[in-house]
Write a structure and sequence with these properties.
The structure holds three protein chains of three kinds.
Chain A (H helix, E strand, L loop, with lengths): L3 H34 L20 H9 L2 H32 L5 H11 L4 H14 L6 H9 L3 H12 L3 H9 L4 H12 L1 H17 L2 H6 L8 H8 L8 H34 L2
Chain B lengths: L2 H21 L13 E7 L2 H17 L3 E7 L2 H14 L5 E4 L4 H6 L7 H6 L9 H4 L3 E2 L2 E2 L5 E2 L2 E6 H7 L16 H9 L2 E2 L15 E6 L9 H7 L18 H15 L16 H7 L3 E7 L3 H7 L4 E4 L9 E4 L3 E4 L6 H11 L2 H10 L3 E2 L5 H10 L5 H8 L1 E4 L6 H16 L5 H17 L1
Helix pairs in contact in B: 2-14, 9-10, 14-15, 17-18
Chain C lengths: L1 H10 L2 E2 L7 E2 L3 H9 L1 H32 L6 H13 L2 H11 L8 H6 L4 H5 L2 H28 L4 H9 L4 H12 L1 H16 L3 H6 L11 H11 L3 H29 L6
Antiparallel strand pairs in C: 1-2
Helix pairs in contact in C: 1-14, 3-8, 3-11, 4-8, 8-11, 11-14, 13-14
Classes of the chains: A mainly alpha, B alpha/beta, C mainly alpha.
């Protein structure tokens, strides 16, 4: 048995390591936000200073004026809400089918869908674009949402893994009670995999929020751009990068996500307590 | 998860759908007798869009049947996006073009030949800079009139020069690959180590450098191609030709000199980043620890904003074959598939006209290709405290086009690759040149 | 989504420069790739190397962090948010900031390295560091994300199991080895498979930070593919690369899938 003192040593060592890692995680981000809020001439001084001489909001202001950021936020929210909902609803149902229902070719089909993750998006770009054009969806929300609405392989995969860990006995009990698949899904799977749902929602949210190659290809008008596209296009031209504006925009773009996480954290804790009680 | 959570998701889906319906727009429009023709105009620089937004309303006033919608794509994604749209048949009516991609686009017949339009409307091409017009010509056909041009100049940190008591660079500065000329002397005096010794002093410690005299790196147009030309070497035998000179003695000599500045003499910082996602070199200059940088006239705005020291502009140092600056320009070209060719041409005519050029000259971002606007550009920068006349001097001297040809991108990737190794000191210039030529052979044979 | 994939296979059998019409060339793209293109093999090798740099370190740290944070120590919620922040930041900002941090002359690391007597450019500017630097940035970026996934997996292990183990006298380390890890297998399977797929498709960071250089030091597979597709106008060639990548990843995934399948029992009762 480890003595009390040794245990204390271990714990504080771990704590120390975690704090170091946290600092490492934060430094580049701190630098991003710092560049956004400090005067432009200080962006590249050497030696680099961690504390700004003063805080300015000019960068944020000029960034907001450079492009319709309110609109970008709206677009991004709409697209993200739709994709997350789609992923949650359709992805979970499909995953349930793969996890619990038996049908011929099930595993093969699953592997095929996994295969979808393995094709580099660059290659499917043009054929998909042509498809969007046929449907006249270019420059509309449809083109931004439809390819992702039915869920992506990664979400499906994650759901399936989690559903598989739910004890079969619970489902057997429900079947005995006369439940069909849909009822089982509602009453057994969903409550017991709540952290899986939360995780997938969060992952899809972040992915869609930061997704940028496809939205860029498929939208033209300024009013249809999403945040990630706006950041990429507004501040970089062939030979210049508007550093401070870019950092401001990045800060603006990351803020909602951080908020999302702080909120989601609380739910994580709740769901631990829920799943502990059997 | 409770019932209510599902409700939330359903609600979100509904909001998304209604948002879609509300804000939906169509992407194709053609003119009817009551509606104006809408032209799609794609560019890659959002700060220049602001200038267009000053001139386009004037254009639309004079031409009520035409409306221009500007779309900005970032530089890094501009060409994939353009190509995807062309493949999908929805290319913009007008879009910015540039020498790197121009030959390949011409080869594939996606650009509208403007020669008949120019002849019909009797546009006087002599008012424009000759060199830069050539960018957009192929096989005696003209595809557009270049809208702007640039020159490479020497930008220097006035404060650093003052600190060591050296006079600012001017037209008397020279260089040569044998002893480096005045450029090298000055660079040495301005490279300082921790104890304050310069590279010209005996006690100089290369491992403790805190300030560099000049930057020498793999940037191509803003840097080494100019020096190669000034030495009598070159990239291609003539513009757009497929015969390359990268292993020839004069080219090799110049490149070796530049690489040695980094690895042998330590007057230039080790820098492996080529300038594609621009700015490592410029950021280094903005730190105030770099005395001189050669760069293009497009960079003044950025320096103005990020430098907290005084800086000035000088012509490039004179080489064995004189002074040469690479020049490059952007042009607005029309898609060969455009459904609104006549209207697009009308727009182009305006863009090439004096009124539009004046707006750009006043904004100071670029030197327009209309020679008459040169003084406007210089005046703008004078009002900002910067003497930009060296830019005009370089432009009136010998200029050369940025290298390009059909399939240039692949060749350039090879050049960059091998020159990276050269600047790192891993290979010498002759080996690099030979390797590049071998790659080029392979690429051209494919 | 299926149609574009099929057409991608089709395009790989052509020579197509996007702007014109595709020309059928059969399997010559594949032939050129495998037998005549040294860069292809180099990029494949780089990608494997990159995976070896990134994945083991990342997964170990993520797992350790997840186990620690799952114990409910003080400040867990905040730490979890902090670790995840690198992953949620816009890739462009991440790339540019790291490029500046790693600048060999005036970046953030120059001073600290000099405290250890290291002349920064010797490392930061060297050819051998280029690929590890990309791995470094991505380890920084995604460890928190993997940690989050492991956490979700850990939370599906009911407390009762741990309680039973404690009663049986298992101490901390034994608990982890004999109980946590085996029960975590479904989540581990997910993380390992998706991590490998992801690292084989690494692109963003390379695009923003090094563009494949210096020399060919970071010309990873997907980046070379992208160059062929959109810079060199060789879409058919790039599609062939994509098909080959698909086959390689598929093979790897199948192996892992069968390995994990034989290892996992899903029922706890």
């Amino acid at each position: 048995m480890i003595s009390g003192k040794q245990r204390w040593l271990f714990v504080s060592l771990f704590y120390f390591m975690i704090v170091i890692l946290a600092v490492v995680s934060l430094v580049p981000l701190y630098w991003t936000v710092l560049t956004a809020f400090r005067p432009q001439e200080e962006a590249f001084t050497y030696p680099p200073s961690f504390v700004p001489s003063r805080i300015v909001f000019d960068n944020i202001r000029s960034t907001w004026k450079l492009a319709p950021f309110g609109r970008f936020f709206f677009n991004t929210l709409v697209v993200t809400a739709a994709c997350v909902s789609g992923q949650i609803v359709f992805g979970s149902l499909a995953a349930y089918a793969f996890a619990r229902m038996e049908f011929p070719g099930r595993d093969f089909l699953f592997l095929l869908i996994l295969g979808g993750m393995m094709i580099p998006p660059v290659i499917t770009l043009i054929p998909l674009f042509i498809m969007m054009r046929q449907f006249r969806w270019i420059d509309t929300y449809y083109a931004l949402i439809m390819p992702y609405l039915w869920g992506q392989p990664i979400g499906l995969f994650l759901f399936r893994q989690f559903f598989l860990t739910i004890p079969k006995s619970l489902e057997d009990a429900a079947t005995i009670d006369g439940c069909g698949h849909l009822r089982i899904f509602q009453t057994v799977i969903v409550p017991n995999a709540s952290h899986a749902f939360l995780t997938v929602a969060v992952i899809t949210f972040v992915f869609t929020w930061n997704n940028f190659l496809w939205p860029l290809i498929v939208t033209n008008r300024e009013t249809m751009k999403v945040l990630s596209v706006a950041i990429a296009t507004t501040f970089q031209s062939e030979k210049t990068v508007l550093w401070t504006n870019l950092m401001s925009a990045a800060t603006l773009s990351v803020a909602p996500l951080i908020l999302l996480f702080l909120v989601a954290q609380k739910n994580f804790v709740e769901s631990i307590q829920l799943s502990g009680i059997k | 998860m409770k019932r209510s959570t599902y409700l939330v998701f359903a609600l979100a889906l509904a909001v998304a759908c209604s948002g879609t319906v509300m804000a939906e727009g169509t992407s194709e429009s053609s003119g009817t007798s009551s509606q104006p023709v809408e032209l799609r105009f794609m560019i890659w620089d959002s700060t220049q869009r602001d200038t267009y937004e000053l001139s386009i309303p004037k254009f639309e006033e004079k031409n009520p049947g035409i409306k221009i919608n500007i779309e900005v794509a970032g530089w890094a994604q501009y060409w994939p996006k353009l190509q995807t749209e062309m493949a999908g048949g929805t290319a913009p009516d007008i879009f910015w073009n540039q020498i790197r991609y121009f030959p390949s686009l011409v080869e594939n017949n996606v650009l509208l030949d403007l020669t008949p339009f120019i002849e019909r409307d009797k546009i006087d091409l002599s008012k424009y800079d000759k060199t830069v017009l050539k960018i957009f010509q192929a096989d005696d056909k003209i595809y557009t009139i270049a809208k702007d041009r640039d020159a490479i100049v020497l930008v220097y940190n006035k404060d650093l020069f003052d600190k060591v008591g050296l006079p600012y660079p001017d037209a008397s500065m020279d260089w040569n690959p044998r002893d480096g000329g005045k450029l090298f002397e000055v660079a040495k005096r301005l490279t300082l180590d921790q104890s304050g010794n310069s590279a010209a002093d005996p006690g100089f410690e290369p491992k403790r450098i805190v300030q560099y005299g000049i930057i020498s790196d793999n940037r191509g147009q803003p840097f080494h191609w100019n020096f190669v030309l000034m030495n009598g070497g070159g990239v291609q035998r003539e513009p757009l030709s497929r015969e390359f000179l990268l292993d020839k003695p004069k080219t090799v000599e110049a490149m070796q000199f530049l690489a040695d500045l980094v690895n042998v003499h330590h007057v230039a910082p080790p820098a492996t980043t080529a300038d594609y996602h621009p700015g490592q070199a410029r950021q280094t200059f903005a730190t105030g620890r770099l005395a001189m940088i050669t760069d293009g006239s497009w960079v003044f705005k950025q320096f103005q904003e990020t430098a907290n020291f005084r800086w000035g502009v000088a012509p490039l140092p004179e080489g064995p074959e004189g002074r040469v600056s690479i020049t490059n320009g952007i042009g607005e070209t029309i898609s060969a598939d455009s459904k609104n060719k006549e209207e697009s041409w009308t727009a182009l005519k305006y863009f090439a006209g004096e009124e539009n050029h004046r707006f750009f000259a006043e904004a100071g971002n670029v030197v327009t290709s209309l020679k008459s606007m040169e003084s406007v550009y210089v005046d703008f920068w004078k009002s900002q405290g910067v003497d930009a006349s060296p830019v005009i001097e370089m432009l009136s001297g010998k200029t050369a086009l940025s290298p390009s040809t059909k399939g240039w991108n692949e060749i350039d990737a090879s050049i960059k690759k091998h020159y990276d190794l050269l600047f790192l000191g891993q290979v010498d210039a002759q080996t690099a040149g030979n390797n590049i030529m071998a790659d080029i052979q392979r690429i051209l044979n494919n | 989504m299926v149609l574009p994939t099929i057409s991608a296979f089709g395009i790989s059998a052509t020579k197509w420069n996007i702007l014109g019409l595709p020309q059928y060339v059969g399997l010559s793209n594949y032939f050129d790739l495998i037998f005549r293109d040294p860069v292809f093999w180099h990029s494949l090798w780089l990608t494997v190397l990159y995976t070896l740099y990134e994945i083991p370190i990342q997964l170990v740290i993520a797992l350790v962090l997840a186990i620690q944070l799952n114990k409910g120590m003080a400040g867990t919620g905040i730490f979890r948010t902090i670790f995840v922040m690198p992953w949620i930041t816009t890739p462009i900002a991440v790339g540019l900031i790291w490029k500046w941090i790693l600048d060999p002359n005036f970046g953030l690391l120059v001073k600290p390295l000099s405290w250890f007597g290291i002349h920064a450019p010797t490392i930061l500017n060297s050819l051998w560091f280029a690929l590890p630097s990309i791995a470094l940035v991505n380890i920084w970026r995604f460890t928190g994300y993997k940690m989050m996934l492991f956490l979700a997996g850990l939370q599906s292990i009911p407390h009762t199991v741990y309680e039973a183990a404690e009663i049986d006298g298992a101490n901390g380390f034994k608990r982890v080895w004999y109980i946590t890890l085996p029960l975590l297998k479904p989540a581990t399977m997910f993380v390992v498979i998706t991590s490998l797929i992801g690292s084989f498709k690494i692109f963003d960071t390379v695009f923003i930070m090094t563009q494949g250089g210096p020399g060919d030091a970071t010309r990873v597979y997907y980046f070379y593919l992208y160059q062929n597709a959109f810079e060199f106008f060789k879409m058919g060639y790039a599609s062939a690369m994509a098909v080959l990548l698909f086959m390689i990843i598929m093979a790897m995934t199948l192996v892992q899938y069968w390995y994990f399948k034989s290892q996992i029992t899903y029922d706890l009762t």
